[in-house]
Amino acid sequence: DAGVTQSPTHLIKTRGQQVTLRCSPKSGHDTVSWYQQALGQGPQFIFQYYEEEERQRGNFPDRFSGHQFPNYSSELNVNALLLGDSALYLCASSRTSGGAGETQYFGPGTRLLVL
Amino acid sequence: GQQLNQSPQSMFIQEGEDVSMNCTSSSIFNTWLWYKQDPGEGPVLLIALYKAGELTSNGRLTAQFGITRKDSFLNISASIPSDVGIYFCAGQMTSNFGNEKLTFGTGTRLTIIP
After folding, report:
1. DSSP-assigned letter for residue A28
2. pLDDT at A101
3. Who contacts B12 (Cβ-Cβ below 8 Å, separation ≥6)?
4. Which of the residues in chain B have pLDDT under 70?
5. Which residue of A55, A84, B28, B68 has the fewest CB atoms within a 10 Å radius of its CB?
6. In terms of DSSP bridges, do strands A64-68 and A53-57 run parallel, antiparallel, or are they unpaired?
């Protein structure tokens, strides 16, 4: 049973460019959350997707957008990249069942470096 | 964004020692989680706590959900080399709709001195 997978593992972009990161959730999971982890800090919530819609959003600008596909996989898009967007981007999957006990499982992350 | 206060920020211990770390929040949560993150990897769930006052163990790890719902602690007994890494607490509010976002702590870096 494959866990959460993310691609690519590493990425180098320049300021102003756009980037797309991909995530496949753990088997049986229908909810995908994205987090940004700057160096030396804890992960910060970006947004969560369920039933192909953005269900919750953290304090991130509109340059950050996402998508969820019918097979529950998800993409994170960042436009007009800034140096400060350099971070580890983590995808977490879970199952929405309407109560406590559905924990989030993380992928290995995509390391983005903006030059 | 909000980050929970975690202490200590780093710990240097010898193999076999016990470890204790805690996490505090200005707001309440109804679920507390503890994760461990190794370099280049995503966080791995260690323990989940769902009820105020709950004490839960997972092998050498023991965690407690504070009665005020604003804090939690994690103990590791008889540390071994593979315990090295960064430990994060995370708070979560769950709702009838399902699980909500995680709010993470600032992390505790554990190093074992030979």
Report:
1. T
2. 58
3. B111, B112, B113
4. 1, 96-98
5. A84
6. unpaired
**B114, amino acid identity:** P
Phi-psi region at A80: left, alpha or beta (left = phi > 0; alpha = psi -120 to 50):
left
Determine the distance in angstroms separating the CA of A59 from the nearest CA of chain B, rounded to an integer: 6
End-to-end CA distance of chain A: 37
pLDDT tens digits, one per residue of B41-66:
999 999 999 999 999 999 999 999 99
pLDDT of A96: 80
Which pLDDT score is estimated for B1?
66
Separation between Cα atoms, residue B105 and residue B42, nearest integer Å = 15
Give CA–CA dist A75/A86, Å, rounded.
17
Pairing of strands B55-58, A64-68: unpaired
* pLDDT over 70 (residue A7): yes
Cα gap A71→A74, rounded to integer Å: 9
Contact state of B1 with A58 under an 8 Å Cβ cutoff = yes
Q: Which of A4, A7, A30, A44 to mutate to test the interface with B (most CBs of B within 10 A)?
A: A44
Q: Is B104 exposed, middle or buried (0-12, 13-18, 19+ CB in 10 A)?
A: buried
Count of residues in chain A:
115
Q: Is B96 on the interface with A (CB under 8 A)?
A: yes
